[in-house]
Amino acid sequence: MYELNDNEFQYISRKIYDYAKINLTEKKRSLVISRLSRRIRALGLTGFQEYIDYLETEEGQTVEFQLMVDALSTNYSLFFREPHHLDFLYDKILPESRQEPLNIWSAASSTGQEIYSILIKILEYQSANSKVIPCKLYASDISSQALTTASRGVYQRKDTAKIDDKILKKYFLSGTGSKNDSVKVKKDLIKKVHFFKLNLDDEIYHLPPMDIIFLRNVVIYFDKDTKIRLIDRLYNYLKPNGYLILGHSESLSGISDKFRVKGKTIYQRREL
Ligand SMILES: C[S@@+](CC[C@H](N)C(=O)[O-])C[C@H]1O[C@@H](n2cnc3c(N)ncnc32)[C@H](O)[C@@H]1O
User: Fold this and answer.
1) Backbone phi and psi for residue 186, each to the nearest 5 degrees, phi listed first
2) What does the alpha-carbon distance between residue 266 and residue 108 come to, in Å, rounded to a whole number?
């Protein structure tokens, strides 16, 4: 591990904040040290000052900058996380869906577990009800590395340990031999998701109006002003009465009054 002085820490947090609006407070200093020490070692540099100098070069501003974003974004995710959201989709949203395709966006999709869980829930609904629900699934993140994992659909077997056996067999392929430790989402599922890089701080997203936006466990990294601007923008990317779903420790309280509460961290766009 390398030493990180105050100026260096401020430089790095400012860079990340300006680009991604991720708020690296003092509490995150040790995370910055451990995650970027790996980059410093990989580049054969002597410490943070050399790393910062490198970030100022042309290569540093492009390739290394993205690797730094990848290193400093927290990509923790789980299959079937916060299942009450998926139950709401299954019990309330899918039964009400009409002929029009449902547009569903996992807006901080990380390594893909969220969008695959949503898709599996939809497929299960379809087979239980002998009904086809036309859907378009979008999954985006700011981390290129996370998106690569998501679009490959390969996970450690232990990450799927809590998934029901029947579901696992139906939607995943089990690795054998040297790949015994991994499982892979079946190709026809992967093909149903449009994965792409998107910075939530961008002013404009090139996306159609959504029926549901899953924005789970990401606004926790943003400050209040960023949250207010983001939620206001997302309001306009929802269809009338569309749903916005946040993570377990997130809320719209003090952020927006343009939504009505429909369940625990489930919000519905109000028509003003
Ligand atoms: C903890 S993960 C959440 C994953 C998933 N939504 C879940 O709840 O399991 C947070 C994700 O937000 C992404 N993120 C952080 N800042 C972002 C930004 N400005 N734009 C888009 N994605 C961002 C990170 O790269 C990370 O993958």
Assistant:
1) -65, 145
2) 16
208-229 tens-digit pLDDT: 999 999 999 999 999 999 999 9
Amino acid code (one letter) for 258: K
Q: Which pLDDT score is estimated for 98?
A: 83
Q: What are the chain's domains?
A: 6-72 (1.10.155.10), 83-155+188-269 (3.40.50.150)
User: Sign (positive/negative) of CA torsion 83, 88, 90, 93?
Assistant: negative
Query: Does the annotation count 35 as an active-site position?
Result: yes
Pair 216, 114: CB distance under 8 Å: yes
Cα–Cα distance for residue pair 197/193, rounded to 1 Å: 13
Question: Does residue 141 have an active-site annotation?
Answer: yes
What's the predicted TM-score (pTM) here?
A: 0.97
Ligand 1, closest atom to CA 82? Answer: 8
| Ligand 1 pocket check for 114: Cβ under 6 Å | yes
pLDDT digits (tens, 9 = 90+) for 81-110: 999 999 999 999 999 998 789 999 999 999
Q: Is 76 in the pocket of ligand 1 (CB under 6 A)?
A: yes
- Does residue 201 have its Cβ closer than 6 Å to ligand 1? yes
How many Å lie between the centroid of ligand 1 and the Cα of residue 122?
23
